[in-house]
User: Fold this.
Amino acid sequence: MKAAQLFGKEDLRISDIPKPAIGAGDVLLQIKASAICGTDVRMLKNGHKAASESTPLTLGHEISGVIAEVGSAVRVYKKGDRVAVAPNLGCGVCDLCVSGNTHMCRSSEALGVTIAGAFAEYMVIPEAAVRQGNICIIGGNTSFEEAALAEPFSCVYNAFELYGVNPGDCVVIIGAGPIGLMHAKLAKMAGAGKIIINDLNTDRLAECRAIDPAFKTMDGNNFEENLMKETGGKGADVVITACPAPSAQQAALRIAAVFGRINFFGGLPQGKSEVALDTNEIHYKQLTITGMTRQSLRQYRTCLSLIEQGLVSVKDLISTRSALEDLEAAINRSARGEGLKNMIVF
Ligand SMILES: [Zn+2]
Ligand SMILES: [Zn+2]
Assistant:
């Protein structure tokens, strides 16, 4: 079978490798769609400790497909099931795992990040992931492409649960990529009064307005002044930094309203994460600032269900569909910020 393996920094190869054999507790998945995300870009550009010349790693953690084979001890799942698979798995026995936060386990692993992933014709869902509940049956008319997007969408949902959107809230999202748009879509579903997306790239802002004319956009010109004018001097109830920019975190504190909730969604590049913040903004406006990483299985399944019920559409976030052979070109398009979600389809 064909698999896109990372051998090191900027060294991605389409390899011909044997179709993997499965153990009694494992499931073999035939991939139908897997989406490219910022993690794939970073792993290609910077390399990763799990990928080397002697231990190449198949990337791809936004996963959907058809079950091709189940091990003799697997119950519940059967050959032919259409499924989406959450990538993160924990040890299963620590306090965090037992509380349902398997994605925060200190010894967590992730399909496509530390274990072979979905940029391949087939992948093994290991017993630990099968038993933990990572495999989710795709319901209704949901396509494989939409189901694969339950992964990034549920990262966004994780943050959404932390910042909360009340009916009528003004929600500001800094960063007009696919993640920013997912925040905007959830905010709309939750009844936000105003949804404002800010980005320096005006082409991306135009794309946002094309996806939903209800989304207001603001470019980099006098953004903070314009935002304060737009909100009658109050500022935003919710601010999300959906970009890896320290300046966005600084701006978020200034444009947040009294009692504002801020989520630092985008991590910062290594070496740039010490940021000078005006903490009196936090103090005197009584702000709440949260972080986030990955998603719990509950959040993953909730998002798959939101997609299935048509409560949030993700189809319009898919810009390009490519064959596995063209993965590197597609990752490079994502790296340049071209298109929203670039998918590999089989
Ligand atoms: Zn991702
Ligand atoms: Zn654990």
Notes: The CA atoms of residues 224 and 255 lie 7 Å apart. The radius of gyration is 20 Å. The mean pLDDT is 97. Residues 37, 39, 61-62, 151-152 surround zinc ion (ligand 1) (CB under 6 Å).
